């Protein structure tokens, strides 16, 4: 293929529904090009291409003299008949080259999303983000593509740089230029902050759940008084009575129909229950701002992974005290009424949820504005419809596990025997792995693989018990090794998804699309 032929191929125009185009390098080799990835910079055309199941970054230099290709490492020069002065270079999709790509193309760098509606799309396998982009492209919601919690990083044995890199390559492959977020999720320590800042993350979700005193809901007034006098939080300045007076008996009018008027007991309960949260969040925020003053950052506060529900006044109390300390939030995730279990729909009274959600929303508008964040947001379709029907406010939704399930669904459809192995392994590990998750599944309700036809395997993804059993065992599935030291499943999972990439993307686009569409009603 000549220089002119390659230029014509890369320049287009290309039909909007074109999945791939092909560049013939030799009689025996063709590069499958992702058309949306084609980007010209000066005299160089960059694009993502695939030979077999291996993706690479390619740079077609029309003159053969550009310095732009020098930004990238591990170049493999490709000879092509008739190129004369032009060069076609191939580069691996590694961390160094992802960073180089960011230096050239601004749209591959994460941005601050602010209070725009958004959805977090965790990619535990590093292959889902292109499907995520396709799912949200027609939505008003901004995607947070690089999203992983400290717990997920540990369980998948990944580094935050890997998570960021997969998002970078995904937006380049899909030609997504409208901005994406990067969420360092569920951070508990200042070391966590430093680690994720260094990886380039821009959203920092603080998780002070270990500092919530859940039993405060059950304590008597006398015990609350004693506990309140014992605490030594810096924000109290040694005078907890002054704090009580700020709130007790006050009329806090938030809307025409909703006001708070906490009594002394409510204030003491909020102080005992959430005082440690305020103290720890303030410490984390100060560290972020003082140690990384030039780093673009926005902060979410998460108190969702606790036993006790966050009442509207407790939300107001926490946010108000943080605001007094100049802690600026982009979003806050309360512990809502009802049950937000992993991988299944909401369990609870939806009308009551809507009433409480509106109260939390009013508080967020008064003290921010900031977004209300929905954690364990995978597959909460009833909640999405309820929020969408309200047609007001700002929202952030976090998902991750549902994308892992869509990967397993792709495997079940294409390599059912591999999925059978994963299913039985997950059933055997569930009782241990569920301990750190809020789930109600029972393994006796999930059939053994040998009892399922291929069609019945796919039906498991519509069954709540099976979804949760598969959901919470992801870490062991991805990291367990056999006797020889090789991964038991990981390499085969990745190979299957790479082989059936378009089906994987289709499943993600369809399923995650159902997550974002209800929110369009709110705008």
Question: How would you describe this protein?
Answer:
With 523 residues, the chain is of the alpha/beta class. Among the domains are: 3-104, no CATH class; 403-509, no CATH class. Helices cover 43% and strands 16% of the residues. It contains 19 helices and 17 strands. The protein has helices at 3-11, 95-104, 129-136, 150-156, 160-174, 190-198, 221-230, 240-247, 264-291, 312-324, 350-367, 381-390, 401-414, 416-433, 454-459, 464-472, 474-479, 490-499, 501-516, and strands at 21-26, 29-33, 39-41, 44-51, 54-61, 76-78, 87-92, 118-121, 142-149, 181-187, 203-206, 252-253, 259-260, 298-302, 331-333, 371-374, 395-399. An 8-stranded parallel β-barrel has the order 8-9-10-11-14-15-16-17, surrounded by 7 helices. Strands 1, 2, 3, 4, 5, 6 and 7 form a 7-stranded antiparallel sheet that branches. The protein has a two-stranded antiparallel sheet with strand order 12-13. β1 (21-26) and β2 form a beta hairpin. α3 (129-136) packs across α5 (160-174) and α11 crosses α12 (381-390). It starts with a helix and ends in a 7-residue tail after the last helix. The model has no long low-confidence stretch (mean pLDDT 94).
